[in-house]
Batch of 4 targets.
Target 1
Amino acid sequence: MSLIKIAGIAAVVLLAAGLVAMVRHGRAQPAETSTFEPEKMKDFKKPEPAELKKKLSSEQFAVTQQCGTEPAFRNAYWDNHKPGIYVDVVSGEPLFSSLDKFDSGTGWPSFTQPVKGTDIVEKKDTGYGMARTEVRSKVADSHLGHLFDDGPADKGGMRYCINSASLKFIPLEEMDQAGYGRYLEPFVKAGLLKAPMHETAILAGGCFWGMEEIIRKIPGVTKTTVGYSGGTTANPTYKEICTGGTGHAEAIQVEFDSTRLSYEALLDYFFRMHDPTTLNRQHNDVGTQYRSAIFYTSEAQKQTAESVKARWGKSGKFSRPITTEITAATKFYSAEEYHQKYLIKHPGGYTCHVLRD
């Protein structure tokens, strides 16, 4: 039997099952827009049931939590051809790549394999008088769809038939910023993305909580660490820094992909997010630890920093001279863990930074 015939039969069977399932969970409706935005995370986890009910659409909840099936050809990703990664809508766990997606003719997203390193759970499913293999996510135990052996023979012969409602699509250009940077290499090999060029910048401009909250969201930034730089005391603590006696400034170590974000562009963000004209002060935070400073890590960074500072000094944006110091980077000391991503841990916490136009 040809692949097309098999796919057609599978589509009819799954469509019938899907309609039954949708009726079981309520009258069949067009796919709803997702209201759930998984946070950037390293340790993927399943939210509490009450939270899921609030954040998932009714269709997403019915599919992922109650093994429902969405209508064929009336779902978000069956015809999506954009490059990127598909993650579990419940937990954010990476599941499938656009590089392994193919048009099966069934009306549901189909993939030849999961993302490398992802464990998809397989279960025997004898519902609706059929013997099938159900697939579920490992971390959140979300119902995803079913696995069939009628996929492209040259790519292993498998077809993961997945509900769009179980997935959230992360476009290629947003993967790094969304926390999925380690899954970019296959896209580089496929010629869809330039190989990343990693560069490090160290910037100081007042309380590092607010600075990090802005910088971590800049496209092209891959990692941020708050800490201390520019002083003389080895392994300083926050308590020592607060005395002003160590010479350190509260600073951000920024790792970024210079193929996506230039050092000059990063410095433009820097001058937009704080007041570089107040010497040793940002709003109510006073002391040398709150000074404005660019700690360059190369001669090229030094030249760029001087050029950008001069340009901003002539921009007319400030009524007073810029006091930002430009000095060679010395050892950067990471701050205590409770300071890292502080405003993610404490939404609404103190900040004196805002990104101006």
Target 2
Amino acid sequence: MNEAAPAIGIIGGSGLYQMEEVRDATEHKIDTPFGAPSDVLIGGKVSGRQVYFLPRHARGHRLLPHELNHRANIYALRVLNVRWIISVTAVGSLQEKYAPRDVLVPSQFYDRTSSRRAHTFFGEGIVAHVTFAEPISIKLRNLIAESARSLGITVHNGGTYVNMDGPAFSTRAESELNRRNGFDVIGMTNLAEAKLAREAEIALATMAMITDYDCWKVEEEPVSAQTVIGHLMANAETAKKVLVDVIPRVPLEPDWPEHFALDSALVTERKLWPPATVEKLRPILGRFL
């Protein structure tokens, strides 16, 4: 297993790793058995803590949601001994009470994607079914909400993120259905990160940064890339402030329930694990070997 100190991962836009507070920045090019991550990872110290930043859509925003290699992204972070992930992601609001530039820290997901195979590390002779009733780390979610609140940022602690395929935004019929189902925000990327982080025994929580009202709010312009970009810039500044505040609040030792998620998940008997699959998943299964 990695002997480095447990680290914090930040998945998000390119502006985040350019934070002035990042000290001793280093680049890490990591190859994984699942292919290449979205980009080179940027390591550095924030408030004395080791942090690794991963630009989700690559620097310059060059990858569509369905082109993201989520397995490689989470695996690469786990190789670097990341045990907490704060995922910063743009979302549309499905409810009047969540306005553009607000922050929502989701507590639940609803999956409308079609990528089941790409949302697990397991298979090839080792079966695992992680508990996912509470898909977000409650402790990390609360830390983020507390930090945002202390900075005077409008934050909503809890809510359901519905994950769609994209890359087109919703039709009005889809948006209305999502609203009737009581979902709070909509995005294209975050569910896979949460599922894979749980399998990798990483505690994950999300800062869902609201950019628009999807297309259900007929008195507003339907969401477009142009509408979103101004809000994205403001949201990136908000995210930086929260990250600087919350990073030193994260514990030093990974001893939350998420850090032991595989204790109750592994189904296949150890003696039946194929050596090639064991080797492939060594960063994830290390404590069982």
Target 3
Amino acid sequence: MSEELLALFRRTGALLDGHFVLRSGLHSREYFQCAILLQHTDIAERVCKMLAEKLRSFDCDSVVSPALGGIIVGQEVGRSLGKRHLFVEKENGKLALRRGFKIDHGEKFIVVEDVVTRGGRVQETIDIVRAHGGIVTAVGVIVDRSGKAKPDFDCPFVSLVEMNVENFEADKLPPDLAKVPAVKPGSK
């Protein structure tokens, strides 16, 4: 599955090489631009169905995802599981439950996202669900690029592909990477 997925990333031009600043603030030579991959609806359906199959054994009433990157993933995973999908989005610089979405007390959720490095957006989403009385039974992502620093979400964490991608703090860039202008292609 991992090789098939990586081939799809490469074929669609969604696996980028260069100097990237990730949402986490870390720098990397590689960037997974899931939006490029998921713009192809047939691929989005297939990839998210694979993720849904890995999540099917976890009890859930609904699927939730952080905007912006997780919206397509959440919609397609929700469709595959036959569950409703809602998303959290930025409000005053932080993620929030908006648009009239409701979380019932005791409602069980699976949180899904496109890519995780440190897991900050996923953790924010989990915190929102729990603050509204919901329960998170699992987290699922397309790409886990956290390596040895795997985040602990206090629930099962599954991915379609695990990548050991080098990440660097801004003040600890290798000389070759420091010479390349950095770009930040992801969500703001």
Target 4
Amino acid sequence: MSGPGAYWIGANASKAPGAYGDWYNGGDHTTGTGNMFVVDGANSATTPVWEEVVPVTPNTTYTFSFWGAEVDHDSNSLPRLQVNINGGAVGTSVFPENSPDNGGKWENFTFTWNSGSSTRADLVLIDLNTDTPWNDFALDDISFGAQ
């Protein structure tokens, strides 16, 4: 984790390069032994945390979901992720204050979106919190599918 906007994929946030001593010492949401996506939040609200373009069926309702956790034991600056699809905001999420190994938890965030006439969806997660210190988090089980 070399600074704002950096990320790491691994099984334990406390083992990420540059991790602080109070970072989450535990596993992913799914099994506790798989990988998670650990992010040092960017200092710009236009920098994508994650982005993918997928084909969609017109006039279909989709669900976008992910699990998120704070990696600092007790953060003064919580991640606030916004989901954008095709350039429009679908919703925002504020992460729990503490890491899962310090009274916090992995939390599921779910949003729905109707494709209308679209045949593709540009899925983007943006961290609206632009504070450089303490803005560190983990993501797991990102999914997007028709209802």
